[in-house]
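Researcher: Final request for today, and then I'll write up notes for the group meeting. The sequence and the SMILES for zinc ion follow.
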Amino acid sequence: MWQNRAGDGWILLLVSPFIGSLLGVLIRRLPQDEPVMWARSACPRCGTRLAPGDLMPVLSFLVLRGRCRQCRRQIDRFHLWIELAAVGVVLWVILAEREPTMFADCVLGWVLLALAWTDLETMLLPDALTLPLILAGFAEAWWFDPTMLPDRAIAAAIGWGAFAGLAGLWRRLHGIDALGAGDAKLLAAGGAWVGAEQLPWIVFLAALIGIAVALAQHGRKLGSRQQIAFGPWLALAIWLLRLYPDMMG
Ligand SMILES: [Zn+2]
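Model: Predicted protein-zinc ion complex:
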């Protein structure tokens, strides 16, 4: 199964636009508690059902030049960006030369991508994504080396406990929610995928990136009560430490 590694890369590249299309559905529907189905999409203006050919990710967008076949209304660019981002995840994994765990890494990257995107848009990290990601981390450890499983389980528990505890403490002291419950579950997922040793680095790296981005965006206007999504930077930190385990020494 793992013999033809270059082949795996091609297969992952080929399916990734379709995965991206599915991620788009998850990003738009999960925060609204809408059912996630493979309903045929229709144009929001003229109601034309998209033909199967129109559902080819990326390609159909280019062929139709981003417009509805009937009324020429512009198709939401979101669909193109998320599909390209899903392709980008695979390219990144290939460039990082992660052959033995290529498939698992792509799954992690795709789910992190959906989580980061959802959090940026809605300040939510849906349980429907974080909780399966924790289990997937355990499954991945078990599949490649079952002796890693205890470490991953401990890391997940510590990750959840640390953030949940911190959030509770902050709420008591300041009466505000500094960290969402979703952040604790995402950090648990991070622990489940990279292990206990890397856990502090996830938090460190995420805080560093988050502060840098917040300063760049808001500058001096940044108040301590400003709401900032932390999930995207947690997701990015998990991703970097997974692909480059030695980056923090
Ligand atoms: Zn139309």
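Model: The CA atoms of residues 93 and 102 lie 7 Å apart. The radius of gyration is 20 Å.
Researcher: Thanks, that's everything.
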